[in-house]
């Protein structure tokens, strides 16, 4: 992985989003629980208790996050209401109280932070609109599968998530604020934080899928995520955001463990639009790695974009 200077700031944390943990989710079943809790005999017992609904709900947390980002960037406030997006809270102690306290009645809690992006490039504005529609379709799809067991949207905090990410990565000074909604460039950086990890997450789920119908759905999601991530990376390269992309990549590598499975977009002299291994095969991530990137942690403690943690059993 190419290493870029970060203007003297420490590039050590990442509040990236493993949005489409649907990957870690679709068809994973017990395998996802093992990835999250280890390989001991107790982990095997815990894995046996994980249901398909638990897996889909893990994914739904990140679909809410992605939809809210693009919807606010394109539309601003008030955000588009999601009919029927109340639901059950996590099964962990206190979760139902958290749901009743923060979700109110009838609709999901309004995310914290963000505003309409003053887009200057019509193409980037169109991308925000299209990706928002994609994410809304994913939310609707997952909720239609889950029915009454669908989780509600947990608290999302864009101000906290992006500012902490910006400070720890060196995108802004230690006391600065990173506003992903400020302009076209910042929007693309924010989108890379939330999008780029999804391809590796879906890729990691493929070997565990047993149901042919789920396999086809996962392959379709992987293709969609690859399209989206590739578009974001291409637009960033066109605008010369090589250093910022590397800072995002370095942070993700910090949180997903000792392996080096993340790549920036290269340099103006040699671009790297498609991050892959020596065989041009996309990398894989486990659900645990996806979750840690979303929380901005190495130990699974809630934070980043999810200050109260994820809803659902897999968290």
Automatic annotation (TrEMBL):
Keywords assigned: Signal
Signal peptide: 1-45
Domain of life assignment: Bacteria
Pfam (any one): Ferritin_2
InterPro entries: Pigment-catalase-like, TAT_signal
Name of the protein described by the UniProt record: Ferritin-like domain-containing protein
């Amino acid at each position: 992985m190419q290493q870029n200077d970060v203007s003297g700031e420490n590039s050590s944390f990442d509040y990236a989003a493993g949005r489409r943990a649907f990957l870690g989710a679709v068809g994973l079943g017990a395998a996802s629980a093992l990835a999250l809790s280890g390989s001991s005999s107790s982990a095997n017992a815990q894995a046996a208790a994980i249901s398909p609904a638990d897996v889909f709900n893990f994914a739904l947390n990140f679909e809410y996050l992605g939809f809210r980002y693009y919807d606010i960037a394109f539309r601003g406030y008030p955000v588009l209401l999601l009919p029927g997006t109340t639901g059950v809270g996590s099964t962990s102690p206190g979760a139902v109280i958290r749901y009743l306290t923060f979700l109110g009645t009838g609709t999901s809690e309004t995310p914290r932070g963000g505003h309409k992006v003053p887009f200057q490039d019509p193409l980037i504005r169109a991308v925000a609109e299209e990706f928002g529609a994609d994410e809304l379709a994913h939310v609707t799809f997952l909720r239609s599968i889950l029915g009454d067991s669908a989780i509600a949207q947990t608290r999302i905090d864009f101000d906290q998530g992006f500012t902490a990410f910006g400070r720890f990565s060196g995108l802004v000074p230690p006391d600065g604020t990173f506003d992903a909604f400020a302009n076209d460039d910042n929007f693309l950086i924010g989108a890379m934080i939330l999008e780029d990890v999804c391809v590796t997450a879906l890729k990691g789920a493929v070997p565990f899928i047993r149901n042919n119908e789920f396999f086809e759905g996962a392959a379709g999601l992987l293709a969609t995520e690859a399209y989206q991530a590739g578009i974001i990376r291409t637009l960033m390269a066109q605008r010369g955001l090589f250093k910022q992309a590397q800072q995002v990549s370095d942070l993700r590598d910090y949180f997903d463990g000792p392996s080096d499975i993340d790549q920036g977009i290269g340099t103006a002299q040699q671009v790297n639009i498609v991050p892959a291994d020596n065989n041009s095969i996309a990398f894989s991530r486990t659900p645990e790695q996806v979750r840690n990137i979303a929380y901005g942690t190495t130990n699974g403690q809630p934070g980043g974009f999810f200050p109260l943690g994820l809803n659902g059993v897999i968290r």
